[in-house]
Amino acid sequence: MKILIVNGPNLNLLGLREPSIYGDTSFEGYLENVLRPWSDGRCTLDYYQSNVEGELINALHGAIGQYDGIVINAGAYTHTSVALADAIKAIGLPVVEVHISNVCKREEFRHTSYLTPVCVGAIMGFGMDSYRLGVEALLK
Ligand code: DQA
């Protein structure tokens, strides 16, 4: 199984950004030291990050015919982007929404997700392990 992990805005700063919420590990560090070794033999993982909404949409379109599923942390676009939700609907691939923090325990504006209704499911609040759980959900 081929899985694409997509990270949205500000997630390139994981490790530096608000470590009390998001931890002190970069995504690249987590991917190479934890996620790839864990996934070895179970699936192939590719990773894409952008701070630009249109580029995230292009990455979703580009996944058609290339991947079996997607794990996406759209960052703040989760709470604003009809365009990303439409892209997820359009591509016809299983997409799992993930968040490092439990967005439902945070500010009110983070309680709305435009993506949850078009994803197969959502995982939140387990720190970086949310990504592994997202991959595992796709594998199952
Ligand atoms: C986040 C939660 C979002 O509300 C926030 O804008 C992020 C990260 C998370 O992983 O917890 O950028 O998606």
Task: Give a short synopsis of this structure.
The chain is an alpha/beta fold. The chain has helices spanning 19-22, 27-39, 53-62, 82-91, 129-139; strands at 2-7, 44-49, 69-73, 95-99, 121-124.
Calculate the mean pLDDT score and round it: 97
Tally of individual helices: 5
Protein structure class: alpha/beta
How large is the share of residues in beta strands? 15-25%
Give a description of the structure.
The structure is a single chain. The protein has 140 residues and is of the alpha/beta class. 34% of the residues lie in helices and 19% in strands. It is built from 5 helices and 5 strands. It has helices at 19-22, 27-39, 53-62, 82-91, 129-139, and strands at residues 2-7, 44-49, 69-73, 95-99, 121-124. Helix 4 (82-91) links the parallel strand 3 (69-73) and strand 4. The longest helix is centred in the N-terminal third of the chain and has 13 residues, at 27-39. The model has no long low-confidence stretch (mean pLDDT 97). Bound molecules: 1,3,4-trihydroxy-5-OXO-cyclohexanecarboxylic acid. 1,3,4-trihydroxy-5-OXO-cyclohexanecarboxylic acid is lined by residues 10, 73, 75-76, 78, 99-101, 103, 110.
